[in-house]
């Protein structure tokens, strides 16, 4: 039993008087909250919370325990601030680097959820299109969505996996008939982001694998700008499903080749940070929160595969990661 984690969860339930709302604010599942409070009650041999189908209330023992929990959590916060000050680091300050793809999809919700839990935390965000544009000295923690993670001395932990989709807009397909086979791509206007293969795309069906040469009319680094160009009707592009889920749902972007497999379409979302001794409290808390959030709240998209989060890994080569089953 992690008593401190259970105390934090109980304190949030006591504040909200609602298990579901407490789970939402903490970024964990309802079942984790319910189980944690039950384990804490079992450990203390006393009921802390009265639960009915309509309301949640604290027992007299729960009220008393809540007061002591508040004192404990305030003391822990003070201790954290003292240690951060001793290390010359502002309390609760995190330097975050994120790829433009991740920064425009999951990151805002992750930061908002964490800020609810740790209201003293401040963020300094750097957004990049290419991982080579940032160095380890620029950040405390980095989020990257890549097909092949470059060799790194950082601790690399997989969070989730997303897949590419080839799409066009209704306006474009009103002018040009959608391609029915990969070969027909040669007669279409193709747009390419720098994080997508720009020389050829590979497809697989029951007849085998087929390689199609791509001759883009527009290439740029930022996938957000490619997405906007596709929406404007400029052409067809290969984009991460996580970036265009809303547009696929409302029909403003249309997928092509739904019955033909696009090879090499998987991207893994990674969180990277230094494995140096005496990791800052704020950084450890944030990394643990992010990992747990993805573990408890996997995406539900039908084409998206969530990678189970395992132990932290030091990355030595892409081959090693692939053979350990992460990709």
Protein described:
It is a single chain. The chain has 327 residues and is an alpha/beta fold. It has helices spanning 3-16, 19-26, 30-44, 60-86, 100-103, 107-117, 170-175, 223-231, 241-250, 281-296, 318-323, and strands at 49-51, 56-58, 93-99, 122-128, 141-146, 155-168, 190-193, 200-205, 208-213, 218-220, 236-240, 254-255, 261-262, 266-273, 313-314. It has two domains: 3-86, Arc Repressor Mutant, subunit A, CATH 1.10.10; 91-327, D-Maltodextrin-Binding Protein, domain 2, CATH 3.40.190.290. It contains eleven helices and 15 strands. The strands form three sheets. Strands 3, 4, 5, 6, 7, 10, 11, 12, 14 and 15 form a ten-stranded mixed β-sheet that branches. It has a three-stranded antiparallel β-sheet with strand order 9-8-13, with no helix packed on it. Strand 1 and strand 2 (56-58) form a beta hairpin. The radius of gyration is 23 Å and the shape is elongated. 30% of the residues are buried.
Q: How many strands?
A: 15
Succession of helices and strands: HHHEEHEHHEEEHEEEEHEHEEEHEH
Q: Give the integer mean of the pLDDT values.
A: 82
| Secondary-structure content class | alpha/beta
How many domains in all? 2
Integer-rounded radius of gyration:
23 Å
Summarize it.
The chain has 327 residues and is an alpha/beta fold. The protein has two domains: 3-86, Arc Repressor Mutant, subunit A (Orthogonal Bundle); 91-327, D-Maltodextrin-Binding Protein, domain 2, CATH 3.40.190.290. 39% of the residues lie in helices and 24% in strands.
């Amino acid at each position: 039993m992690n008593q401190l984690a259970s105390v934090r969860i109980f304190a949030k339930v006591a504040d909200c008087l609602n298990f579901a709302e407490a789970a939402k604010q903490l970024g964990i599942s309802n079942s984790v909250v319910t189980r944690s409070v039950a384990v804490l009650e079992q450990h203390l041999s006393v009921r802390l919370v009265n639960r009915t189908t309509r309301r949640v209330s604290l027992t007299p023992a729960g009220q008393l325990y809540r007061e002591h929990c508040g004192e404990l959590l305030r003391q822990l916060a003070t201790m954290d601030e003292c240690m951060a000050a001793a290390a010359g680091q502002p309390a609760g300050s995190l330097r975050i680097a994120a790829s433009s793809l991740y920064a425009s999809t999951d990151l805002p919700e992750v930061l908002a959820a964490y800020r609810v839990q740790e209201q003293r935390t401040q963020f300094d965000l750097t957004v990049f299109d290419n991982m080579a544009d940032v160095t380890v000295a620029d950040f405390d923690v980095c989020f990257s969505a890549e097909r092949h993670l470059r060799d790194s001395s950082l601790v690399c932990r997989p969070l989730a996996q997303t897949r590419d989709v080839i799409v066009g807009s209704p306006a474009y397909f009103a002018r040009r008939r959608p391609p029915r086979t990969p070969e027909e791509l040669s007669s279409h206007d193709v747009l390419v982001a720098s994080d997508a293969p720009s020389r050829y795309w590979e497809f697989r069906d029951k007849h085998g694998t087929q390689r199609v040469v791509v001759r883009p009319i527009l290439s740029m680094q930022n996938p957000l700008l490619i997405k906007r160009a596709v929406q404007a009707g400029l052409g067809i592009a290969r984009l991460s499903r996580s970036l265009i889920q809303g547009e696929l749902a409302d029909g403003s972007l249309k997928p092509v080749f739904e019955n033909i497999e696009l090879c090499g379409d998987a991207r893994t979302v990674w969180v990277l940070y230094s494995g140096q001794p005496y990791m800052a409290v704020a950084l450890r808390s944030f990394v643990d929160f992010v990992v747990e959030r993805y573990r408890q709240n996997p995406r539900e998209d039908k084409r998206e595969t969530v990678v189970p989060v395992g132990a932290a890994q030091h990355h030595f080569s892409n081959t090693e990661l692939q053979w350990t089953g992460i990709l």
